[in-house]
Fold each of these.
Amino acid sequence: MNQKLIDNLEFVHSRLKWLSKDRKIVLPHHKTFDLVDELMDKVSESIDIAKK
């Protein structure tokens, strides 16, 4: 599997922990929105890699 795709998936996995019920801290709204934007970018990039 492509290393960039693996890196993206690991990034998404780690950041989803920040949004899960088991998180240790509560993120402010603006940070949550920024995090979701980052995750969407990584997923889009991963989709492009998978299509190639």
Amino acid sequence: MDEVLHVTNTTNLKSIFKKGLFCFKPSLEHHEKYAKERFSSYHKRGLIYTIPYGCNKMDKYLKDTVYWKIWGRPRNDALNLSDDDWLKYLNDGSKYFETMEKQLTYEEHFSVLSIEVLDDIERLETAHLQTHDMSNYYMDMDCSFEHGDKPLFMFNENLNYKMKVIGTIETQRKRNKKIEVNLRGF
């Protein structure tokens, strides 16, 4: 049995404890392609991303995960552009993201779930790469949330096993526009 960690918005807890943790479609096509190639029976409903409990640099990876949820995923969604939007993006440069930047919610409250996963549940184990080589997208990520070795377990089925909240994570945006991520209860 593996114990894994999953980070979710605290508002989701009631539903998760009642119905389980549900897969979601990856925002990046190469993640879905990777899953389709490697899961014996990939279900279109998507993936659940987790990190192994007790892994090296666990606190850092939890912070990096939350940063991705409030900054990375919206950025990825913004970069999933139609051809017309892509031309506008190329012409406008950083101005293209000003609207998206205003829509981001920086003050969030997340819960970290510990989940016991049975050994016979199929999972993919990989290392997640998140680096600063995104300067051509005009929205550089904060280098303090970079990593090249974050271990990920991805699941392609809903999880409703033994779960408990083991801590919380709060975020806020500072005046210097830096995102601050604080772990609580660890």
Amino acid sequence: MSEKINTYYKYTLFGILGLGIILRLGLLLKNPSFFYDETSLALNLINRSYSELFLGLDYEQSAPPIFLVLSKFFLSITDNSNSYLRDIFLRILPFIAGIAVLPAFYYFISDLTKNRFVQVISLFLITFNPLTINYCAQFKQYSLELLFGIMILHCFYKIIFKNKFKNYSIILISLAPWFSFSSFFIIVSSLIILLKKNRNIFLKVLCPYIISCGLLYYTSLKNVFSTTYSDLAGSWAGSYSYLELQHPLRVLIRLGELFTYYKPASIILGGMVTAAIIVFWVTEKSLLKKVFLFLPILLTAGASVLRIYPVSARLILFLLPIIIIFISVYCCRYSKLIPLIFCVISFIFSFLYLPAPTATSHREALDYLESNLTPSDKILIDSDFNTYTYYAANKVLNADLVQIPYVCSVSKWQEPCKEFISNLPPGSYYLILPSAVTDSIIVNGKIIDKGNFSRSTVIKFQK
């Protein structure tokens, strides 16, 4: 009987991993157009040399230097004239990291608990999660930061709770900041515990880590803080990405957004995550383990309240493994219902948001434009100008560009945009929008042609 159960267990694991990989591979091959942040980051790679990637990026972008260097290498080995292949090559590193997350987390959970039901639930929750799937196929660093978060947690767990210290742990911990800025919260939390548990190993780990962080600061972070950070901080503040004590509901929203992009549902899920954290504190007897798992969350929250680090879902994705541990390992001690509810919700949303809602079809729109544009036409570009610049780089588009006011996009192409279009001088125009719009947006003009794509619209009209 035990052999039969063991077989079912293995098949279940392989089934989860297999379907998870198929989902991620399918999204990679679907290769949706880059959206604003992706194209802004890609333009930095195109316009800068390898050494200039350490100097702080343009367009309110920031990413770990090794991620940038490796991504530029992938960009250099592809055909820049083929937008589809260029996009897919830039997504290779996030894809590899996103796939590696699954076995890495399984091995960590297997060390943490021998309960096979919990192992299956944990693997299911990280495999069928909208964020882990979508960031696996987006040109951003978040899946790499998630991978390093898991590896560092597992590494310190072995050192602190199993007295298994290997010299390669020093290399992993020291190099982590070059691949993941968010690794700071996990490493500092674990070092605080290690200081009390084993001072000899603490010093072995601390010294090379400080040297590595010092080199990272003087070669990269110093430039980021002096050039880009103030713009990023302003952008984060404008998007309500910082925690504020007078807005406690924001905590629930941010926790819930780790499982869904749908804000009303995130409040409910955030409440359930909070309940799982309470269960963790009640059921876990080891104070050391409580500190080990909760301190990274506490440090991240503290940095956010101090307006040092934002807590948007993508930027706290590295905390997802800890949240899943609270849900699967500790909630199962009382009831299997909450973990199963999270599994069902995660599974539904993982299919519902493929790709993520921020995706556009600008690549296809620019291909359409290149085939139909005439020299007398003018092109109306919305606030996502970087996406146009990125996809127009390898095309011949001889036309004047007209920037659409930002108010048009924030008003969702209603009255302000209609007024802007109605006041345009006579001529032939192509309007490119990152969304589906009705023909009523064209005021005092005649629509000549229209190209509809899944997430973009191109309208040609005559004034």
